[in-house]
């Protein structure tokens, strides 16, 4: 009888010690290509480099990419701090948030960011994929997301992919 009681008690402790099942963060680590972008407050980039996400301690993520300023390419990095909300990260000392949303298309995500930069509020969405080629089904899902968020669908841009072997022209996403 004591053995049965001990086994039951240990079983309950084990069940209580396990984390409850929850929504898993989308796997953002690795290289992602920006397939489409839209911004509420500024003209989206027409040339973009891939974004490389690397794991840091505590669930934080380092985003590395190249930006173009005054015709020159510059390496840039942003630390994304994990929050208690799955798929949500804090950046720029809490002045901006990045939300990672899944899409119905494999290897495609939407990065939606909002916050404040130089005293101005901003909202921006990017469709990213593991492949630089545009997937039309993913683009349709992105357009629905953009509409749902109230961003200007007419301003969606398909940017030029920069980097080795990338020579595609930027175009509107009609």
TrEMBL record:
GO molecular function: small molecule binding
Principal location listed in the UniProt entry: secreted
Highest taxon above the source species: Eukaryota
Keyword set, alphabetical order: Secreted, Signal
Location relative to the cell: Secreted
Boundaries of every Lipocalin/cytosolic fatty-acid binding domain copy: 30-162
Gene Ontology cellular-component annotations: extracellular space
Signal peptide: 1-17
InterPro entries: Calycin (IPR012674), Lipocalin (IPR002345), Lipocln_cytosolic_FA-bd_dom (IPR000566), von_Ebner_gland (IPR002450)
Similarity annotation: Belongs to the calycin superfamily. Lipocalin family.
Protein name: Lipocalin/cytosolic fatty-acid binding domain-containing protein
Species the sequence originates in: Ailuropoda melanoleuca (Giant panda)
């Amino acid at each position: 009888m004591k053995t049965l009681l001990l086994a039951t008690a240990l079983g309950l402790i084990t069940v209580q010690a396990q984390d409850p099942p929850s929504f898993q963060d989308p796997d953002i680590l690795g290289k992602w290509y920006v397939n489409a972008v839209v911004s509420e407050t500024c003209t989206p980039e027409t040339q973009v480099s891939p974004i490389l996400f690397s794991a840091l301690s505590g669930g934080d993520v380092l985003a590395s990419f190249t930006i173009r300023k005054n015709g020159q390419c510059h390496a840039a990095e942003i630390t994304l701090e994990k929050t208690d909300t799955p798929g949500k990260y804090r950046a720029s000392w809490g002045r901006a948030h990045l939300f990672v949303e899944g899409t119905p298309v494999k290897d495609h995500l939407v990065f939606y960011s909002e916050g404040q930069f130089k005293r101005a509020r901003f909202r921006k969405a990017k469709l990213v994929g593991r492949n630089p080629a545009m997937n039309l089904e993913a683009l349709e899902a992105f357009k629905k997301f953009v509409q749902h968020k109230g961003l200007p669908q007419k301003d969606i841009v398909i940017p030029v992919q920069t980097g080795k072997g990338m020579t595609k022209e930027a175009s509107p996403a009609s």
